Structures are given as C-alpha cells and as structure tokens.
Amino acid sequence: MIKFTHSTILLTSISSLAFYSHTACATEYDVYGKAEVQIANTDKGIMRYADKGTQIEAPFSRIGIQGQHKLNEYLNVVFKYEVQVNGFEQDDTEEPFSARNTYLGLKGQFGELVVGRNDTRFKYSEGKVDNFNETQGDIAQVIAGQDRLGDTLTYTSKYWHNTQFSFTYAPKDDNKDNEAGFAATVIYGDRSLKNTSYYFSVSHVDSLNNINASRIAAAYKFEQLKLGALYQHSESTDGIKSGNGYVLSASYTLDKWVPKLQFAKDDSLLRQASDATQWTTGVDYVFDKQTTAYLLYTDLDLQESADNSVALGLKYKF
C-alpha cells in the first residue's frame, strides 16, 4: 500500500501544476526554494528564532512556484505559492509546512496588483539593509513592522527614473486592528544594489498588525564595501507604546569571504518587553551564487536580561 504524506501531496501538486502550466497553458514559471541547515548554541533562549541550548535547525527553508500567463499584449496573470519547509526538524513532522507569500493577481503597464498573503510594503522597504536576514540576528528581533500578512492587496508600480511606489491594503474585517490598514513605500534606486550602487526608501504603515510607524532606509555599495542604515519611529495603535529604532550595517567582500557587522536598537517595547540592543557579527563564505556557508555571533541586551547565540550554517538556493 502506498502511503501519502502531507509532503508527498504538496510536492506532487507543485510538480503537477508546473508541468501542466508549462505544457498546456504556456505559462512562464519557476520552481525555486532555499534549503538551509544550522547548528546553533544559544545561552538562555530569550531571543526569537533560537531555542536554549545546542540545536540543529533549518531556519526559514522553503519551496515555491511563481510565474505568469499572458492574457493579451497588455495584461498578464501573475501568481506565487510559497511555503516554509519545517520538516527538516524532528519536532515538526506533524506540521511540515507553514504559509509564506501566496497570491494571485494581474500585471501590465500599470504595474502589478496582487491579492493574498504577502510581505507588507513596509517590510519590503528595508531592502538589503539587514545583513543577517532570516537568522537570530534578523532586525525583526528588535524592530517592529517586519510583517507578512494574509488577506491583503498589494500594488507595486513599474520603475520610473529609478523610482518605484508600492502599497499594501488590508480591509477592516481582515485586519487584527479591526480597522482598515495600509502601508505605503517610495523607493529610489535598486533594492539589490545590482543596477545602481545606492538605495533609498521612505515608508509608512498605519494600523497593520497593531502598529503605526514611519521608516527611512538607505544602502550604498562602493566596490567591495556595502553600508546600510535604517531609522524608524513606531507606536502601538492604541498609543500606549512608542519609541525609536535604529539599524546600522556593514559588509566587505574579500574574494569569497564576506565579513559582516550589524547594530540594532529599539526602545518602542513593541518587539521586546524593554529597551533592546543587539550586536551581530559574522562571516560568509560564498562557494557560488547558490551556496553559502556562514558563521555568526549575536548578542541581545534587554534591561533585565541578556542572551547570545553562535551559529554555523549552510544554505543552498535553487
């Protein structure tokens, strides 16, 4: 007897969808993902994304399919279905997958408009400022607003003279605040620092996931050196909590080695119970565009406690 697991059904569905789309509908699509393993030792387990003691983890590993289908010379259907793969770990065999960006929409000369689960355009505005994204040193450890929300509408304009506008909207009935909420972002330059050596963004979020906040983010690349900075003022929608957050980051490419450093601080009490300061340092070894090994150390200081974590990891993107 053949036993069908959640994993088998999901992967079969993705493969079938990709095959059908390519052969029957002439849809352009990509199956992509990230496989990552990490050995980490964390002192107290106070910080997010890291349990106390020595753990083998698979942080934010994922698989997805994204693509578009041409309706006419003016309009395309676009889609993305992406899940986080938790099944690497022994404790997650019952729930091997969790939701990530999943949406359907339209794309044309007007830009792109999609409906579903997506990173808010406030989160999107960080660009590549975060040197330790999706690790214990992620800026979401202390900075509020790094949200991925379902039941949202996202509009992203085309670039015009290196400038792009984007917008997230959540209806009242689908928002945690029980109020209609939005996030709006204006970008100048390239988020990936590939087409331009600079990046600058201004963003505001109103009543999404219980916060109101404004943010300025910038990054600059000069030869092997990359610098990033972020300032944010945040407050809870009820006005009880408020404060400021800062991020400074730097990295330098030495052939295949990339040493990195990052500082983050926030006193809004929205992500931690007290003022929070985090220092993170590490080094990547880039085998190729798809494969990277890394070592990092991060230290989180709160008013009444502190935590630290050291991690050795390997990630492969496809």
TrEMBL record:
Keyword tRNA-binding: no
InterPro entries in the record: Gram-neg_bact_OMP (IPR050298), Gram_neg_porin_domain (IPR033900), Porin_dom_sf (IPR023614)
Domain spans labelled Porin: 16-301
Location of the protein in the cell: Cell outer membrane
Signal peptide per UniProt: 1-26
Family matches, as PANTHER family: MAJOR OUTER MEMBRANE PROTEIN P.IA, PROTEIN YDDL-RELATED
Protein name according to UniProt: Porin domain-containing protein
